[in-house]
């Protein structure tokens, strides 16, 4: 996850105060869809981007 966070600054040049990162481990095994819905509901931002562990960190992403 730290590599993805670093890539935000390197590739997008976005200041950390301009976004929020929400994460939660699915210990209850509710699944990706329900976990995503839960995290989006807790977001303060008008736009949400979902990144999974298989996303690449290249400059064009």
Q: Topology of this protein?
A:
Blueprint: H1 2-12, H2 32-41
Write up what this structure looks like.
- The protein has a domain at 2-41.
- Helix content is 34%, strand content 0%.
- The protein has 2 helices and no strands.
- The chain is globular.
- The model has no long low-confidence stretch (mean pLDDT 83).
Gross morphology is globular
| Strands, total number | 0
Estimated share of beta-strand residues = under 5%
H/E series, N to C? HH
- Span between termini: 15 Å
| Helix vs. strand class | mainly alpha
**Largest pleated sheet:** none
- Whole-number average pLDDT? 83
List low-confidence stretches.
none
Q: Report Rg.
A: 13 Å
SS element count, helices:
2
**Percent in helix:** 25-40%
List keywords for this structure.
2 helices, mainly alpha, 61 residues
